[in-house]
Design goal:
The chain is of the alpha/beta class. 30% of the residues lie in helices and 22% in strands. A hairpin with a 4-residue loop joins β6 and β7.
Length: 219
């Protein structure tokens, strides 16, 4: 092999190793052309858009509309709804609806979802001091997720310490609790502050779902 050919091959080899010729053909000794294989594609962590939302319902006496209406809005926009509860495989609404439970609240991790939504109803008081529910609310907020709560459920957020200094609403019976935890209580159907969305009852359920979707960037 002549010195000129040897130098040419060395230069081509250097460019190839540096990634500067990923799509160009390389001439091997003997005149045969070959195409180097491109590097494998990798997916950067967080590159894939998460399309799952966690709904947390009481095992009994969650409020039917507060689960079903926001769920319908978000599913209609292409989100998968995952339902969590405590100690049951099927949760029961106060008006007769049922919800298949996918996992226990203790198993839920905020990092797996675009949003975490706490549904109201009289049974929701079970979560007011339940450590796993409070942990989930705090994690979701700390990780910059959308956090929603409706009816009396905003008290879960207040008790988790994430409404301090935030505007929020709640069913009237829990208004004093929100204020005592540092929230700026606003008597409106739906209130949002940053990525925290609260609503005051079943009459606001559809608007609540639409506001969550809006903050997620879906409308």
């Amino acid at each position: 092999m002549t010195n000129k050919k040897l130098m040419l091959l060395e230069l081509v080899g250097l460019f190839f190793l540096s990634g500067c010729l990923p799509r160009q053909k390389v001439v091997e000794e003997g005149g045969e052309e070959v195409s180097p294989s491109p590097p494998p594609l990798t997916v950067t962590e967080g590159q894939e858009e998460m399309k799952k939302i966690l709904f947390v319902v009481a095992p009994v006496d969650f409020r039917d509309e507060e689960y079903l209406k926001p769920k319908a809005v978000l599913e209609g926009a292409g989100y998968e709804i995952v339902t969590a509860s405590k100690g049951v495989r099927e949760a029961k609404g106060s008006l007769g609806a049922t919800a298949d439970v996918d996992l226990d609240v203790a198993q839920a991790q905020a990092a797996d979802y675009s949003a975490v939504v706490f549904v109201g109803g009289s049974g929701t008081t079970i979560y007011f001091s339940e450590k796993e529910a409070l942990r989930l609310a705090e994690e979701a907020n700390d990780q910059g997720k959308v956090v929603g709560a409706i009816c009396i459920a905003p008290s879960i957020l207040a008790n988790a310490g994430i409404l301090k200094g935030k505007k929020a609403t709640v069913y009237s019976s829990e208004a004093e609790n929100l204020k005592s935890k540092g929230a700026f209580y606003i008597n409106q159907p739906v209130v949002f502050d940053g990525k925290i969305v609260t609503a005051n009852g079943p009459g606001a359920a559809e608007e609540f779902g639409r506001k969550i979707l809006e903050i997620l960037g879906g409308s």
